[in-house]
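Dear colleague,

Following up on yesterday's call, I've attached the two folding results inline so they're easy to grep. Please treat them as preliminary; we haven't cross-checked anything against experimental data yet. The first protein's sequence and structure tokens come first.
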Amino acid sequence: MIRKELLLRHSAWMTETNSPVIISSRVRLARNLEDFPFPHVLDPEGAGQVEQIVSQVLKDIEVNQERVFYISLTELNNVEHQVLVEKHLISPSLGGSTGARGVALAPDHRYAVMVNEEDHLRVQVLLPGNQLLETHRLASALDDALEAKLDFAYRESHGYLTACPTNVGTGLRASVMVHLPGLVITNQVQQVLGALTRLGLAVRGLYGEGSQAFGHMFQVSNQITLGKSEEDILTHLDAVTGQIVEHELKARELLQKQMPMLLEDKVWRARGTLQNARLLSSEDAIHLLSLDRLGTDIGILPKIKDGFATLIVDTRSGCLQYILDRELDPNQRDEERARLIRGAMQEARSTIQEA
């Protein structure tokens, strides 16, 4: 498969589902090779050896009758690195690092295996909506296939050994991306999410650790893996996610009952701006698309053809330039972003006019 074709594809997690709150589910497994130091103390020669060993296995592996395609990140330009980060296929730290490293991707991006990130391997499965159990099943299948060919660092007393102590044990990080405009608008989000740290969960922004919660979107994940089984981690996260969803839906009901005109004004202003704006910054676009998504979820606005996640990702700086196949300065990006979104909104405008 041509690299350009692979990177231009919409990722599986961007598919629209019936879930009004949970955008995506992810499971990530941290694994290291037995005979090599962790990446942060690995010399360039050792890093090259790790990439060579792992990439060869990845090129030959097949999971659920699917092959993955290996890409060495040293072969990519800065925009291509951005595309991978913006689609959540690699971490920002891997995209910004140097040396021997890479990523293997399934054709629909549901599988992604990072090589020489914080650990030698980061096995990731990312699916749309609330699919934690299915995500874990697929990740386990890929992990089993890799472990059949690679000698992972494992101890009976500790489990899988990882560069960060919080990942020791199962090496599993499970997370959900949730869309919480109701809680933000009603000023309840800090109260609801602030309690999660006491439950052993971490809350981060759209692009993980250190990122901001643009577009009313948050990532919720487990913090510790040592001493917990994979089933315990997933069950706990799923239960807490259910409570978050309940709080968000109640907040939306509250807005509809107590502040209906304020709510309608917010979502219609967002739709109108998206349909007519000639310049849109990335941050403004995410915020407006979030309010627009809220409007369609509660039935105030007609739905648009292109999904919420798809529009957010396609209008990020890297993806926008990659789709248009040319470099853009900040002003040009704002202009092209607005143009792309206006086109996506055209179908909704036609629906309103016909009605």
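Below is the second protein, in the same order (sequence, then structure):
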Amino acid sequence: MARPRSAGYDDQRDLILSQAAALFAQQGYTATSMNQVAAACELSKAALYHYVRDKHELLALVAVGHVKRLEAVVDEVLAEPRAPEARLRELIVRFVRQYANAQNEHRVLTEDVRFLDEPQREAVLGIERRVVDAFASTVAAVRPALKPVDLHKPLTMLLFGMINWMFTWLKPAEEDDGQRLTHEQMAPMVAELFFGGLHAVSLPRPGAEPQAPAPRKKSARKETAL
């Protein structure tokens, strides 16, 4: 018979995932031990294993939890009755806000997903692709002429390029060392910058020969979409 969970089980597990994400972000997945995670949570190692099977499961839970929360934001915004431009603005603003409180998890997503098993990595990438596709469809709804020439997805990836790497220079408010901008202030700026460029993008001329891309070197590391 399965052992019943305590009333605070979910809260304790959330704390474990948060502390693990912080350690992975600060010193890397491979350099972090389960002893360190247990100490950060003020648990014995035996107690830690009551909540997670091993460090690999910890990484998977952190990564999957992060992208699922992003997908939930997308689903929530898409369910609201908004015009296309208002919907895209809201998606951008809410994503920037979400990242403000998930910088450790996002660093783990960008740097440590490669350590997951293939099925776990594909699960993360599958959620990421759904998020990107939702953004791309909204971009195409704002400017329909982009879709026939397949520009809605590349422009979406440029947008994510702005959002995804903010964690490298824009710190959370509690770590502010004199910076004057917050994520709340940056969110509408990102939207304005993207919309200013979105409507200025020139479409390829009909019949124009596309420029062949430079050959890409194969990498052993599988990159994430977000």
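For the second protein, one point worth flagging: Residues 56-173+182-198 form a domain with the Tetracycline Repressor; domain 2 fold (CATH 1.10.357.10).

Best wishes,
A.L.
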